[in-house]
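Methods — Computational structure assignment.
A single polypeptide chain was analysed. Its primary sequence is given first, followed by the predicted tertiary structure written as structure tokens.
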Amino acid sequence: MAIDQGKFKVFCRYLIQVAIDKRFAVYLELENLFGLSRSQVGEYLGALGDYCIEHSLPLLPALVINSGQGSLPSYGFPYYQEIYGKSWGDLVCDVLDYYHQPHVLRNQQKEYFAGMDAVVSEFLSDRQVEDTSEVVEPEPSDRPLV
């Protein structure tokens, strides 16, 4: 499966916002929001997990849970627990401690979001992921603007 760079950047930003809001995201939420299948969400989470490991960041995919399985992470999550040497709860705490800081300055917020685009692009290009995102201009419409 090809990872769309533009979509992946927004995917990363969205999960950062989830962390800032001190909440979890469920697979179905990500499927609906990003127009991905469940397995594609898993691919994006795997790439994000690799990104977090390579950049020594807390594991953002720890905040994504299955709604129908007792609100637990996916079956592949033990891999990350082994890499980080921590329980799921500890990994979640690390993410929330890192991103949920009410006193964070505007510059830090900028780094979390827009400032990460170049780093994510470099990460994806190292993985030989093509930038398949494109700007699509809307078709003209006879409907009045609201």
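Note: Residues 5-123 form one domain.
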